[in-house]
Amino acid sequence: EGKDDMNEREYQVGDRVQHPEFGEGLVLETRGRGADVSVLVSFKDKSQRRLVVRLAKLTLLEAPGARGRGA
């Protein structure tokens, strides 16, 4: 029943993400629901940016189930 949720799941604190302009970052906070969800991301250049998920073209780099492998 929950198999499709992994592709469409909401971002969570601690997720690693990739942004086409700002590069790799770490989700520090999430706000809102549905189409209004935004995330506060700390990027490698030490900047923090609040991005609206549906507009930001973020890519999730590491799913929760991937932790622990080779780390």
Which key terms come to mind for this protein?
single chain; mainly beta; five-stranded antiparallel beta sheet; 2 helices; 5 strands; 37% strand
Radius of gyration, Cα only, in angstroms? Answer: 12 Å
Uncertain runs are 1-7
The count of helical stretches stands at: 2
Order of SSEs, N→C? HEEEEHE
Strand order across the largest sheet = 4-3-2-1-5
What is this entry, summarized?
The chain is 11% helix and 37% strand. It is mainly β and 71 residues long.
Could you characterize what this model shows?
This protein is mainly beta and about 70 residues long. It contains two helices and five strands, in the order αββββαβ. It has a five-stranded antiparallel beta sheet. A hairpin with a 6-residue loop joins β2 (about 25-30) and β3. It starts with a helix and ends in an 11-residue tail after the last strand.
Any chance you could write out the topology, listing elements then pairs?
Elements: H1 5-8, E1 16-19, E2 23-31, E3 38-43, E4 48-52, H2 53-56, E5 59-60
Antiparallel strand pairs: 1-2, 1-5, 2-3, 3-4
